[in-house]
Amino acid sequence: MDRESEVFSQRLEKHHDELRWLYMELYDNSSMFAELCNQMRQFYLDRKKELKKRDEERASDPDWYKRNDMLGMMFYIDNFAGNMKGVESKLDYIEKCNVNYIHLMPFLETAEGRSDGGYAVADFRKVQEKLGSMEDLEHLTEACHEKGIQICMDFVMNHTSEDHEWARKARQGDGEYMSRYFFYDNWDVPSQYEKTVPQVFPTTSPGNFTWLEDIKHYVLTTFYPYQWDLNYKNPRVFNEMMYHFLYLVNRGIDIIRIDAVPYIWKELHTSCRNLPQVHTIVRMMRMISEIVCPSVLLLGEVVMEPEKVVPYFGTVEKPECHMLYNVTTMAATWHTIATRDVRLLKRQLDIVNALPKEYVFLNYLRCHDDIGWGLDYGFLMAAGMEERSHKQYLNDYFQGYVGGSCSRGELYNADPVTGDARFCGTTASMCGVEKAGCEQDDGAMEKAIRLDIMLHGYMFMQSGIPVLYSGDEIGQLNDYTYKNDSLKAADSRYIHRGAMNWKQAENIEKPGTVEERIFHGLQALEKIRASEKVFVSNADTWTIETGDGSVLGIGRYYEGEKIIGLFNFSEFDRTVRLNETETEEYEELISGEKKGLAEMPIPGYGFYYLKMKKL
């Protein structure tokens, strides 16, 4: 047996029994399992020598992604640089941002006008023509690897586009392909699903089924009518999707973001969310990755409260996802801005900090999606905040209507019946940069920039990996031109998906400009984070009682070093009093000043990074 075959056989042997047991539990189909193993072997043999070397290096350092210098950035390829070759030409800029992990938003083939921002995939092995080709993708991943930059992409497992080859054949009445989706020739079964399955977009896409008049069938469409849910009860679906997964990672992808993970398995008389079989599928995917491409990480998109998110890490013995998004903390952060009350955010951070240190969260202030107000309303009710009225307040606040708000943005998927809605806007516009610029108010601009940088400083203190949304590093504002595009006008999320303004980016070297102040403000924080070992993902992290309801305190400790972060979520000056021992002395890492903690004034939207000095 040659060395390559031996390596594969050893990896397969390590996982074979559990993988087979789980597969047979779901499918009871030994021939399909044998096919899966044979295909895995072939994908391993086809994997490039450089990627296999990367696999070996990462296997010897499995915690590589938990380092304190990890910093991500996400962007749409066309918005950022036109196409993949354009992204490659901007790698020096990405390096200048201290970013070593880029998330390329969906770039696989979709149908114009029926793409849902790229999440309706028509071909899992073809890049959108306007963005380039698979060859361009491989060239980009190689260039990124040379610079130490990791590449992340979205893998949309839950559904395909109605323009996908499988869907087209199913629509022609081919039973083999109809069985890969959920088809019904009458309303009996769909009506049963509708009794227990929540709607994702009740306003823009009500219901969970779409009637296809041409073939007189209903098809399950959880998200939009042109996105047909895949039937993972069919082993052919699982196998083929795993082959697509392995094909893509063999193009050099380092991190696979599994889209809409909780929805993958459907079962009648349930919510079709977070079912046990989903965890079986993700666990098998993790093992398949460790057999074929062990350097590849799985990132789960689970937009739910912590108790429903955490299970997707699996266990230490049987892990599932390597990383998950910290969605609830992101929403709680903006709630805190609107209320100037850190209690909910402190509670949320306490929940995350109490989890095992092996768990790694991706933290962010803004992303490509809307902000949903899925907060802990049981806790807020005790503080006098009723759910419906509080959601109304938050949406009004960030539109700039109430509470002394300086924010600007728009609602998404507003439901007049329930009063529910989601919010859209860039970080800078939500912080007041847009309003201050329009009104040419220097004082307001100073405050807005201070808030923007404070929020990033707070995000960097959280446990996990911080991720920037492209443009936030220069304070890019809402882009209202989407209203002029008939394919985008109905989707207000495009307000924060504007094209990267490279002319504006040139201002980062012009002292005093908004872009320069934000860019270099973030750079100072990034430099501190990369140089201080307490920022590793598995450091001890806790919240601190500050004695002021508007000031959040966070402590971090690792191998004898300690840093305290203090963050004022109010526009007014505050004074905090900490119960730290009198023998401890601290240096403020940004200014270099010595600070005592007995009584410390913090300016409005100000913050401090305080490092304990060793005596």
Overview features:
38% helix, alpha/beta, six-stranded antiparallel beta sheet, 22 helices, 615 residues
Describe the fold and architecture.
There is one protein chain. The protein has 615 residues and is an alpha/beta fold. The protein has an 8-stranded parallel barrel with strand order 1-2-5-11-12-13-14-18. The protein has a 6-stranded antiparallel beta sheet with strand order 19-20-21-26-23-24, with helices on one face. Helix 14 runs antiparallel to helix 15 and helix 20 runs parallel beside helix 22. The longest helix is centred in the first third of the chain and has 25 residues. It is globular, with a radius of gyration of 25 Å.
Query: Which geometry do the CA atoms define?
Result: globular
Radius of gyration (Å):
25 Å
Runs with pLDDT <50, length 5+?
Answer: none
Largest beta-sheet characterization: 8 strands, parallel, barrel
Task: Put the structure in a nutshell.
The protein is of the alpha/beta class and 615 residues long. It contains 22 helices and 26 strands. The strands form seven sheets. An eight-stranded parallel barrel has the order 1-2-5-11-12-13-14-18. A six-stranded antiparallel β-sheet has the order 19-20-21-26-23-24, covered by helices on one side.
Summarize the SSE layout with pairings.
Blueprint: H1 3-27, H2 30-46, H3 49-59, E1 72-75, H4 77-81, H5 84-89, H6 91-96, E2 101-104, E3 108-109, E4 123-127, H7 134-146, E5 150-155, E6 159-161, H8 165-171, H9 175-178, E7 183-184, H10 188-196, E8 209-212, E9 217-220, E10 227-229, H11 235-249, E11 255-258, H12 276-292, E12 297-300, H13 306-309, E13 323-325, H14 327-339, H15 343-353, E14 360-364, E15 371-372, H16 377-382, H17 387-398, E16 410-412, E17 422-424, H18 427-431, H19 433-439, H20 442-461, E18 465-469, H21 502-505, H22 514-531, E19 540-544, E20 551-558, E21 561-568, E22 574-576, E23 585-588, E24 594-595, E25 600-602, E26 607-613
Parallel strand pairs: 1-2, 1-18, 2-5, 5-11, 11-12, 12-13, 13-14, 14-18
Antiparallel strand pairs: 3-4, 6-10, 7-9, 8-9, 15-17, 16-17, 19-20, 20-21, 21-26, 22-25, 23-24, 23-26
Helix pairs in contact: 1-2, 1-12, 2-11, 14-15, 19-20, 20-22
